[in-house]
Amino acid sequence: MRIMNREIKFRVWNGHHMYHPYSLHFSSSSNLAYCVDLYGKDIQSPSIMQYIGIKDKNGTEIYEGDVVKVKSVSLWDNSVVMYLGIEWYLANSNDYIKLSEFKPDEIEVISNVHEKGQIC
Q: Scanning 11, 18, 24, 75, which has the fewest C-beta atoms within 10 Å of its C-beta?
């Protein structure tokens, strides 16, 4: 039996800023997430992105919602990292491909779906 060990981390976007939440709680009854920043302030209407457990060729952590380019495969440039079913995928306007098809040193985070050109 293979057990995967990876750090479970999240970041959240509130419509204006990207945060690494101090506290994150999920409500099973309302399907809502409640986030608190380092100063104890509620993060309103968060969009939550999970760390996928790997870093790109520059050592940048890759999160759900990141926009990436893939070395030597321009078809997958500007693809978005997303979780489908039980695996992480890259999605572009035409297709999906398993992220596991690429080595981390072939992937570079260039942006994310919320902030244009800014990586936190």
A: 75
